Amino acid sequence: MNNRLYGNLIFELSHPGRRAYSLPKNNFGNYDFPSHLKREKDAELPECDELTVVRHYTNHSGNNFGVNNGFYPLGSCTMKYNPIINEEIAAMPSFAGLHPMQPISTVQGALEVEYNLKKALANISGLYDFTLNPYAGAQGEFVGLMVIASYHQKRGDFKRTKIIIPDSAHGTNPASAAVCGLEIVEVKSKANGLVDVEDLKPLLGDDIAGMMMTNPNTLGLFEKEIPEIAKLVHECGGLMYYDGANLNPLLGVARPGDMGFDVMHINIHKTFSTPHGGGGPGNGPVGVREDLVEFLPKPHVVRTENGYDVELPQNTGDYALNCMRVGRNMGNFLVSLRAYTYILTLGKENLKMVGPYATLNANYIKECLKDDYELPIESVCMHEFVFDGLKDKSTGITTMDVAKRLLDYGFHAPTIYFPLLFHEAMMIEPTETESKKTLDDFINIMHVIAKEAKEQPTELKEAPHNTPIGRVDDVLAAKNPILNYRQSLANQAK
Ligand SMILES: *Cc1c(COP(=O)(O)O)cnc(C)c1O
């Protein structure tokens, strides 16, 4: 690694007049932009030669940790391997070169991909149809909840303004509900981590729009009382929403539609293997039962006698969503394409192995580590599970310390301090793509760290030692983010 280059920002490498390339001579004459559109002074851009730019970003990329670098057991995020074939297909010029405004007759292949993916997701989930438009899981939640709101409003039922959400839910659930203008009613979990049906009953009434459930829930546990819960919610007139961000363990094993759910979203960037993280591209398709299809956002791809067509949004009523768009086009097409490639590559039979292997891997790690790490709920988990820190609380070593130390050993940390149900939560999700050797290496290092906690705690408190940057002050970074070059200079001057 070139350390001299590494520490710098691209702006600091700037040298007046340096160029990476030059434009060809202008043979077309000058067009004079109206003065109100013109810059008053030149944009302050870094001026660098091409080699400096290439080295700068290549060296920085080496500081990144991704699934392709090592084991990445980030719970709830499903950091599974992204097969190369996905990237090959997504890079094909006939897909990557498409323009979203191209005439429909020229994008029939892309529409076929979208149509077939919708059908595959419908098959996998047991719902009737999908929209691929939402760009992320959280936006999928928003769309799904708007579908529920629209359904009630179309029936002239305006009293249903509340949504029930378990206390264990992912933070996006209450956030999306709030953005939809729904009032959040919390239902408690029992000591075994599952939704408490007795706590739910008194919450139900004619003001309930529906209930959101995550399954497996954020503790990685299968919600065993779904049939009873769905019956109760339906009897009171509400709809059931399934947060399917973590569908991985259920692939080919069980279908939300068969369990009584009316609406769901799937994070295809998690379960169907698109590289994500760092806010990178996602897609959160939303599926619904047959009578709710009319509320899905448009544009929407449909099959016609001689190919595929796109239904555009129309103002067909004043209820919430059916006349709305949630994006200009039909989602992140290349993410959908990767998901479709992944489904076809595995095929129907192999897709059924994903869930069982993911579940086996998680249970294997859990059982091997539970002597050293506190397992708050003893049970067979699904694709992930949660420890509540080290078992030996006398060492003073926190989940944060363990997470930082893992980086020294070449592993990404698990999700930490989430879910909020435990103080020292450490959420581990290995996914199905890891070999037993990798799992054993991780287990071994976790044992080593537990030993270090007793024998050399300072080493842990000061970790990481082998990364270019040590501990970051997360709070300061969140409260006082430095997002541009000028501000970072001003801060250095202080
Ligand atoms: C990841 C996740 C979400 C949010 O998905 P994004 O694509 O990050 O918006 C919602 N619910 C659960 C359970 C998740 O794990």
> What is the subunit organization of this protein?
single chain
* Element string (H = helix, E = strand): HHHHHEHEHEHEHEHEHEEEHEHEEHHHH
Distance between the termini: 31 Å
Mean pLDDT: 92
- Please state roughly what percent of the residues sit in beta strands, choosing from under 5%, 5-15%, 15-25%, 25-35%, 35-45% or over 45%: 5-15%
Q: How would a textbook summarize the main sheet?
A: 7 strands, mixed
Rg over CA atoms = 25 Å
Structural classification: alpha/beta
Shape: globular
Helix proportion:
25-40%
What is the number of helical segments per DSSP (H or I, 4+ residues)?
A: 17
The poorly predicted ranges are 1-6
Which kinds of small molecule does this entry bind, naming each only once?
pyridoxal-5'-phosphate
Sequence of strands across the biggest β-sheet: 1-7-6-5-4-2-3
State the total count of DSSP E strands: 12
Could you give a quick summary of the protein structure above?
By secondary structure, the chain is an alpha/beta fold. It is 37% helix and 11% strand.
Would you kindly provide a written description of the structure presented here, covering whatever features stand out?
Helix 10 links the parallel strand 5 and strand 6. Helix 5 runs parallel beside helix 12 and helix 12 crosses helix 14. The longest helix has 37 residues. 37% of the residues lie in helices and 11% in strands. The chain is built from 17 helices and twelve strands. It is α/β, with parallel strands linked by helices. The protein has a seven-stranded mixed beta sheet, with helices on both faces. Pyridoxal-5'-phosphate (PLP) binds next to helix 6.
